[in-house]
């Protein structure tokens, strides 16, 4: 190695910046948005309230909440040029690719003042409102469902379900999705938020930052894990097979998706809440087999690896029971996390310093340049 640097692989435990948005207490298993415990927010607030809290740093009054709901409802329609681009995506495209490309395209049809600097809160609201529309428009076309309408009277959670399923969701289903959206809204300096902040730290625009974040969330070690959890359950089929299937995967040095976390050393508080919702929705549907399978997997993984579940373990079972196709799970995550990404980008613009770490160079330094016709 050239120089004296110490490498923190994966930037583990590196404190890269100060933030006032989210605090994770990995030892106590607590998650705090702007000072408020996620358990209180999940039990008592709505996604719109949480988005307001993340963006403005305080809970809204009733009037401010109504105004935000009206604003989001009014921003759901895509410009025709962007809608046409979504309609040209191949039906077999990965919905995360659709989202990434559509957000990137949307930037070209939006007013400049919503894009960079503190005033880009307008862009934050526009993107938050637009993501369910992009997903709904794409999914409805590939599934042969009727064309999407903006439905400004619906809450963000209800609109997301309506956009994806073309149903009038029950209050319980809306509550389940709302809680999932609240729990996924922010999570400190996770990989996708870091990607968004790195992009913003170059003074690039909000849409570019969110495009970076969507590409980062797509990976199975981050947002893509809940889809893989359902593949595991499909293989296990009955709780008595959990042990043998998990053992076989561990023997091949495979990771069990939905377990482990970089920050939590105890159970992820989001998993605790989603486990309850998985049971609740299962009981309401008279189908708790996913819940039973997941409990069985939890026992084996704890016994074999001492690993706790993370947010991705139970979310997929809830979405599946609601009728959401597996490849839309990570996009639902994005439809929530966009509120956190944009809050972080706004914070970055407010206290800007180019994020540019260094690497420890471990390659050669004294190579002699060989002209091309002398190389073998
Ligand atoms: N299954 C099996 N082994 C695991 C798992 C797992 N889910 N998670 C960690 N380990 C093991 C690793 O193999 C490693 O063992 P080793 O030291 O013998 O090689 C050890 O635990 C430490 O793992 P790291 O990857 O160094 O821990 P890190 O903090 O980097 O990983 C991560 C965190 C990526 C989330 C990891 O736990 C994982 O891959 N989990 C599965 C994917 C997943 O559920 N991702 C969603 C995370 S939450 C979110 O992003 C929304």
Describe the overall structure.
- The structure is a single chain.
- The chain is an all-alpha fold.
- It has 2 domains: 18-221 and 325-350, Citrate Synthase, domain 1; 225-322, Cytochrome P450-Terp, domain 2 (Cytochrome p450-Terp, domain 2).
- Helix content is 55%, strand content 3%.
- It is built from 16 helices and 3 strands.
- The protein has a 3-stranded antiparallel sheet with strand order 1-2-3.
- A hairpin with a 4-residue loop joins strand 1 and strand 2.
- Helix 4 runs antiparallel to helix 5 (95-106) and helix 8 (171-184) runs antiparallel to helix 13 (269-284).
- The protein is globular.
- Bound molecules: acetyl coenzyme *A (ACO).
- The site of acetyl coenzyme *A has 18 residues, from loops.
Which helices and strands, and how do they pair?
Blueprint: E1 22-25, E2 30-33, E3 36-37, H1 38-44, H2 47-56, H3 62-74, H4 80-87, H5 95-106, H6 121-143, H7 156-165, H8 171-184, H9 191-200, H10 206-217, H11 225-236, H12 242-251, H13 269-284, H14 289-305, H15 312-322, H16 329-350
Antiparallel strand pairs: 1-2, 2-3
Acetyl coenzyme *A binds at residues 10, 221-223, 225, 255-262, 305, 307, 310-312.
Bound molecules: acetyl coenzyme *A
User: What would CATH call the architecture of the largest domain?
Assistant: Orthogonal Bundle
Task: State the helical fraction.
Answer: 55-70%
Strand order of the largest sheet: 1-2-3
- What is the beta-strand fraction? under 5%
Summarize the structure.
The chain is an all-alpha fold and 376 residues long. It is built from 16 helices and 3 strands.
């Amino acid at each position: 190695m050239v120089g004296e640097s110490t490498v923190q692989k994966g930037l583990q435990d590196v404190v890269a910046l100060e933030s006032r948005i989210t605090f994770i207490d990995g030892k106590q298993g607590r998650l705090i948005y702007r000072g408020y415990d996620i358990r209180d927010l999940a039990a008592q607030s709505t996604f719109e309230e949480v988005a307001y809290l993340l963006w403005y740093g305080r809970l809204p009054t009733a009037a401010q909440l109504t105004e935000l709901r009206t604003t989001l409802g009014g921003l759901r329609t895509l410009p025709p040029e962007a809608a046409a681009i979504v309609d040209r995506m191949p039906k077999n495209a990965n919905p995360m690719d659709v989202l990434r490309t559509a957000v990137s395209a949307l930037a070209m049809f939006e007013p400049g003042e919503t894009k960079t600097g503190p005033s880009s809160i307008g862009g934050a609201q526009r993107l938050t409102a637009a993501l369910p529309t992009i997903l709904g428009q794409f999914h409805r076309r590939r599934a042969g469902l009727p064309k999407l309408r903006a439905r400004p009277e619906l809450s963000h959670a209800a609109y997301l379900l309506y956009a994806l399923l073309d149903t009038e969701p029950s209050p319980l289903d809306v509550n389940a999705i709302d809680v999932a959206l609240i729990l996924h809204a922010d999570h400190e300096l996770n990989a996708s938020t870091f990607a968004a902040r790195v992009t913003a730290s170059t003074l690039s625009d909000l849409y570019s930052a969110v495009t970076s974040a969507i590409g980062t969330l797509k990976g199975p070690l981050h947002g893509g894990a809940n889809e893989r959890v359902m593949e595991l359950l499909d293989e296990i089929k009955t709780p008595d097979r959990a042990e043998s299937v998990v053992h076989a995967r561990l023997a091949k040095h495979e990771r069990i998706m939905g377990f482990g976390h970089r920050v939590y050393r105890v159970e992820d508080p989001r998993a605790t809440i989603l486990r309850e919702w998985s049971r609740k929705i299962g009981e309401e549907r008279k189908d708790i087999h996913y819940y039973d399978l997941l409990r069985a997997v939890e026992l084996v993984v704890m016994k074999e690896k001492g690993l706790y579940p993370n947010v991705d373990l139970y979310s997929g079972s809830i979405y599946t029971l609601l009728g959401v196709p597996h490849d839309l799970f990570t996009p639902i995550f994005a439809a929530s996390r966009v509120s956190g990404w944009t809050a972080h980008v706004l914070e970055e613009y407010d206290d800007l310093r180019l994020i540019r770490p260094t690497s420890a160079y471990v390659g050669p330094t004294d190579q002699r340049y060989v002209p091309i016709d002398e190389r073998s």
